[in-house]
TrEMBL record, chain A:
InterPro entries with a match to the protein in the record: Aromatic_CoA_ox/epox, Ferritin-like, Ferritin-like_SF, PaaA_PaaC, PaaC
Taxonomic superkingdom: Bacteria
One annotated GO biological process: phenylacetate catabolic process
Classification via NCBIfam families: PA_CoA_Oxy3
Protein name per UniProt: Ring-1,2-phenylacetyl-CoA epoxidase subunit PaaC
GO cellular component terms listed in the entry, alphabetical order: cytosol
TrEMBL record, chain B:
Domain MIP18 family-like: 15-77
Domain of life: Bacteria
InterPro entries: Fe-S_Maturation_MIP18, FSCA_dom_sf, MIP18-like, PaaD-like, Zn_ribbon_PaaD
Protein species of origin: Ekhidna lutea
PANTHER family: 1,2-PHENYLACETYL-COA EPOXIDASE, SUBUNIT D-RELATED (PTHR42831:SF3), FE-S PROTEIN MATURATION AUXILIARY FACTOR YITW (PTHR42831)
Family matches, as SUPFAM superfamilies: Fe-S cluster assembly (FSCA) domain-like
Name of the protein described by the UniProt record: Ring-1,2-phenylacetyl-CoA epoxidase subunit PaaD
Domain PaaD zinc beta ribbon per the UniProt entry, residue ranges: 118-160
Length: 251, 162
């Protein structure tokens, strides 16, 4: 492999997009109303489209003749590098919205900054994905406001979602070794700068939604290095079934 | 077979290829062609080899695979055998590359075309009223959002700016 660190960096982002896309796809046909069912399927498609760009690049860096499908289908949970947030269950609509909001506030700034990567391929993926992330964060942010500043019940459910997921938020902006090195080498994003922008956005939206920003800064971590909650294994058993049963299928 | 053009008989130039591509339509919006959409970025011809360069609209757009196949089949049908279709990501596709003709075709088909100057001001493609409202940012495909006309009360798709 040409560059192990670049490979890991690419894989981390590929995996997070894939797993969140898969989670959102679970809503297909079960959304609270038709328009929002469609919205979640659309966002899921965007994320899966984005992860394909990442996996195709990963396959090239790896240079072992493996396809994007093989990278997805034939790794076990400990080789997946997604953040733990995205593997958390859908819960109710509020929980799905808040998980999405935590991810979108990260990814919109991540792609915005990655456009300046000195790695041209990463910059191209970012340019494409950033436009989509702008729509995503608008959607999830609007729903956080609508539910938080809605009825007593919707407010309580948003509050419960925040309590449930807040401790998975910090992993997104807490650099692991891969990300630190990627930043030092000029192709990765400065997560400290990203965190500032993201925190401000979260505060702005939660305030408008009449919700409190939790004070706790404790965060679960390790997903980016292959340590996962129990949920990932179940997702993979669904996601990988076809390729494991009938290897060699294509998208 | 004498009428069939081949890559070697010098009849192939950029405009022949563009003419072929003008008849390849979007599988989800069959009135608009791939050239109207602005996803054909370039056509390169070297000796007897044609390279068509395209860029995806949305990263998750399932139509892209179909479009690539359709371009492939259209070229083959016209006797072009030596070609490849290359997908580039950068610069990222924007609705600003959609042709004026393409926008008119969309409108006639009942889809409000992208309006970059005033995205708040979307005209109903049925009755022309500007008294319209957004129902959902996400519509039947990744490129569209869902609107409603407050005058004729018809719902309609809006091809959103990207
Ligand atoms: Zn109308």
């Amino acid at each position: 492999m040409k560059d192990q660190n670049l490979y890991n960096y690419v894989l981390q982002h590929a995996d997070s997009s894939l797993i969140l896309g898969q989670r959102l796809a679970e809503w297909c046909g079960h959304g609270p109303i038709l328009e929002q069912d469609i919205a979640m399927s659309n966002i899921s498609l965007d994320l899966i489209g984005q992860c394909r760009m990442w996996y195709q690049y990963a396959a090239e860096i790896q240079d072992e003749g493996k396809s994007e499908d093989e990278i997805v289908a034939f790794r076990d949970a400990w080789d997946y590098r997604n953040v733990q947030l995205v593997e958390q269950p859908n819960g109710d609509f509020a929980q799905t919205i808040f998980r999405q909001f935590l991810f979108d506030t990260y990814s919109v700034h991540f792609y915005e900054m990655l456009i300046n990567s000195k790695d041209e391929r990463l910059a191209a993926i970012a340019g494409k994905s950033h436009k989509e992330a702008l729509y995503h964060v608008k959607w999830s942010g609007d729903w956080v406001i609508r539910l938080g500043d809605g009825t007593e019940e919707s407010h309580d459910r948003m509050k419960a979602a925040i309590d449930e997921l807040w401790s998975y938020s910090g992993e997104l902006t807490k650099p692991n070794e891969t990300e630190t090195k990627a930043f030092e080498e000029g192709y990765g994003v400065n997560l400290a700068a990203l965190k500032e922008k993201r925190d401000a956005k979260i505060r702005e939206i939660l305030t408008e939604a009449t919700l409190e920003v939790p004070e706790s800064t404790y965060t679960h971590e390790g997903g980016k290095d292959g340590r996962h909650t129990e949920h990932l294994g179940y997702i993979l058993s669904d996601l990988q079934f076809l390729q494991r049963a009938y290897p060699g299928q294509e998208w | 077979m004498s009428e069939e053009r081949t890559n070697t008989n010098q009849l192939i130039n950029q405009s022949t290829i563009y003419q072929i591509l003008e008849n390849v339509t979007d599988p989800e919006i069959p009135v608009i062609s791939v050239t109207d959409l602005g996803i054909v970025r370039d056509v390169l011809i070297t000796d007897d080899f044609v390279e068509v360069i395209i860029t995806p609209t949305y990263s998750g757009c399932p139509a892209m695979l179909e479009i690539e196949k359709d371009i492939h089949n259209a070229l083959k049908k016209e006797g072009i055998d030596h070609f490849k279709i290359t997908t580039v990501l950068s610069p990222a596709w924007t609705t600003e590359w959609m042709t004026e003709e393409g926008k008119q075709k969309l409108k006639a088909y009942g889809i409000a075309p992208p309006n970059p100057t005033n995205p708040e001001d979307i005209e109903c493609p049925q009755c022309g009223s500007k008294n319209t409202q957004l129902l959902s940012e996400f519509g039947s495909t990744a490129c569209k959002s869902l609107f409603k006309c407050n005058d004729c009360l018809e719902p309609f798709d809006y091809f959103k700016c990207h």
